[in-house]
# Entry
Amino acid sequence: MTITHASFVTLPVSDQDRALAFYTDVLGFEVTADRRMPPGRWLQVAPKGAQTVFTLSGPGMGGFEPGSARGIMLVTTDVDADCAKLAAAGVTVDGPSDVPWGRMAGFTDPDGNGLMLLTENDGAEGA
# Structure
């Protein structure tokens, strides 16, 4: 096998503009693609410098169910500070709490897609 990375993760959303505001304004992601194409809008965001992007898949784009994505792990250098910022933005956060591989918390986007924040312990290799 010669797979090098994941290109994108699909996040099904009901309203792409609302999702875009959440991912850029609240999470600080950047827009990597935003163009019209049949059958809808191809909209992608990512943390600055990330190799894998997130496709905010709206109605008519693949038949995905909004809010059905789960277990999307986002690595951060300071889960506690990021949780405080999420809470200040009105996002309900579960955690943070200590786990054997670091410190993590969970939250959902406006459509209910499940995301996690993780600050890894020194020497940890992912969750």
